[in-house]
């Protein structure tokens, strides 16, 4: 791959022929900062929910978040449909979906807590227990695997000195294996919190981790 | 267009209403297509994939539980193709199954055992380590053995759709899927959860009460009626060693569907209680002596003939059968007439099964107060089934007690009576003054009928041998009535007793045991939609 | 502009603006002719729009290849019920990465396609169901949608037509099976994303119990172009049965992996050797999965004979699927990669149907044992039979997708299995 200058369409480490900034690639220049109440209701179910700073005891559905939750409710013919976004909202604040969060969401949506648990456990993106400031999800499915994803995954584990699913002692990182992230042309594809990092090789793992540690947000 | 559809199943032509599923249609030709997730009382998710059949012309095997019949369809449930698919599916069921039949309560009535025996492979090919879920206490009467679960979700659907208290769910997905409640919430406080043990086709959900009590093949099944309230749920008594081991609901769409409540299900221990009166007792000169039936009855008749006639006061029980009650009425009439009262416990509220709203645990916690009233008895006393007997207690004429244990009454009960006959199951202080104590059987020990809240007369059969010399009340009281001049004469069977005593009460006129059958038949009386239901 | 690679063999219709961040801005999009197709479509009767799409021969790009116009025509008319159009942006098939690019580089193209589709099927509400991992991508879409609302392209009385069409972006939460249309509807409704039994089909009883149509992102993104230029114009590319252009997602051992928009019917070997700059490190080609991980693997010889359209793939014993071409060179450990795919399906099985729930995990365990050198030759027969028991016996086709790589690899690369079983020899590094 040495004759190919292009590197990371997801991360601006080296944009090669692309000549775009990281923000342009990610679309951050276009999107800007979205308000916590989510702006227009049509996008109320799409808000961020993987932030480095989490508070397991954060109050749920208050203030701007309450506003967002109410916008979500306006977009579906029944309350049940707001379940996935509502669980996402809880996770955004608390970092994971605790039994207490499930119970609260169930109450708000007139569902049984058991039902909510059934739905929450069906989907892999709801963390069932607290994770580090950065949740590192390394795709090891076929396209990435063909290009060395196992080594990238191992590099993340060894660099963070953790076992899969464990949180590093500084509380910064939890590394897990992920299924295909739809970044197959840019292997290895890694999702870290809400962002994709692509064309990741084992050599780049320390750089990425440093980059994250030095970051204030996202 | 015709509303009937003609199709061929396993070479048999069958005509069924449009919209019928292949599985239901197959029943018409006597074929039970194996199935787990399908249950007639709930929605069909078609996920167990066991009811696959071959429909000629279809590219894939079809789930017969949701595939509706079509004109001219040719269905093969037993072809190599259909059997091959089901054999494959059954093999998957066994890949992680613990094969712990020797210690499983479901063994002997397990649908996994049955189907694998009938249609499965001789040997499984699974060599891999098995998945382990372990055991979980779901609260209430339910234990969950996750490893035995076939993930049919009948239990989840029962709680969601029928009880409508969604306490159960499938947690996780794929091969990690497992039935669970909301963490520690469990089933505590639900009222119908015993049914999830019934609908579980395997030994995944078992009753704590029944745990390791008996093997399925040792149990005798006797059709019966739940005595827990006036709904009259159709049940089976499951007995072994002359003891009721458990109660199970018996399908009857007119009464209880496939269900029964937890209260009724658990209220059976009394049927096994010891301390029963086992022989007729006669009081002679303040001493009570056990005697043979013949002697007791002849002495009783002598005394009755010399007693003042008319103005008899009788206390009946709403746990007594129509035959018992009608025989009591015949005896009272033979003694010159009088009045019959009864007492029974009543709850504060009904508990309705939301997904099958014609079924409820009724306020009236006895099975036959409707029958007692139709025969002419009057309810007295409180909702605790106590009080209301002052007039009887101090009566100086003939007093007859049938089945009421008189637990709230004192030793001097009916002390002034010219003749005090106590027919019942257990002795109490209040029965100690009786001139004659006649041991009678419970409903579980005799054949008979109850009349439920809606006026439906339903039969039950004897599941237990009576203790000692206890006999059905209709037999004893009927014999006395006959000797005292009742026109029907003595009867020998419950069916005769129904014809002789019950059918002559106007509400029951024209009914026969044949009409009643196993499904019940409604009395002639116009059913009141309000009054009686309270 | 070069996103990240382009080839002169490409026909860039949908992907024309990939790599151009200006395309996301509504003013730029409109300047470049955007929302013109919507205007045109709103001036046509819904049936006429359906006819244009039918005439184009456009086939669903989500994998099944069902003709889009025909699918639209299944929607009932004058029911008085709400109708829904759902855009399937739950792109999760291993090897597929086109929808994310379509959304993040050209969000208005998709929104316009959705609006035209909604008009055609009489839907008042469009849900764009994006997989949960597409957080960044979805932000771009949400912002673009907000802009489109502000300009009156979406919402009440769209462009003065008297029609109300709302669009909502919905985010999933991590489940491959939600890419199956009825699983997606369950998920959208706030349920476990388990596929539903069909019938009833979505056109009769779909999302929220109402008539619904589900189309893939790429399908809907093609709609504005077809409406603007007509069915015949679209048919200038591809074949009679598979007309038009298609995004091919090429991944694996090629020099220039990426998305390439090519006419259907393009020779697979030319895609690899010419468009993608040949095999990595000059290695020999071993195998290709041409349609995402759910379709059978083909060997080098079959690859050379394969034409990339729906019929051409079937001719060599595989399927076009969503045109996700996974290329494997001689260093590939086929057994390991197949085991990895089976693990994926076992992980993603919703768990409803027994053959899939039990079979996928069992197959995975057997594959792992073979990979670890503890297999027997008999295991290969068992694998073939067990996976065959998973074909056609379940509600959806995830179960069949387990069988495809296992069976095709055992048939075509039996030697690699035997080398492991007999001598513990692994092939290659990957």
What does this structure look like?
The complex is a heterotrimer of chains A (218), B (534) and C (430). The longest helix of chain A has 12 residues, at 63-74. Chain A is 36% helix and 8% strand. Chain A has 218 residues and is an alpha+beta fold. Chain A has a 4-stranded mixed beta sheet with strand order 2-1-3-4, with helices on one face. Residues 1-6 and 11-16 of chain A have low confidence and may be disordered. Chain A has helices spanning 22-26, 28-31, 63-74, 83-94, 99-108, 113-122, 142-146, 149-160, 205-213; strands at residues 134-139, 173-178, 190-192, 195-197. Chain B is an alpha+beta fold and 534 residues long. The longest helix of chain B has 16 residues, at 80-95. In chain B, β12 (234-240) and β13 form a beta hairpin. Chain C has helices at residues 26-31, 36-42, 46-56, 68-73, 99-105, 107-121, 135-150, 181-188, 217-229, 231-234, 268-275, 300-305, 310-315, 334-348, 354-371, 377-388, 398-412, 414-423, and strands at 84-89, 125-130, 166-171, 212-216, 245-252, 258-263, 266-267, 285-289, 298-299, 307-308, 324-329. In chain C, β2, α7 (135-150) and β3 (166-171) form a beta-alpha-beta unit. In chain C, α6 (107-121) packs across α9 and α15 (354-371) runs antiparallel to α16 (377-388). Chains in contact: A-B, A-C, B-C. Chain B binds chain C through residues 44-50, 52, 59-61, 63, 66, 85, 88-89, 91-93, 95-96, 125-129, 131, 150-151, 170, 172-177, and chain C through 175, 192, 197, 346-355, 357-362, 365-366, 369, 382, 386, 388-389, 392-395.
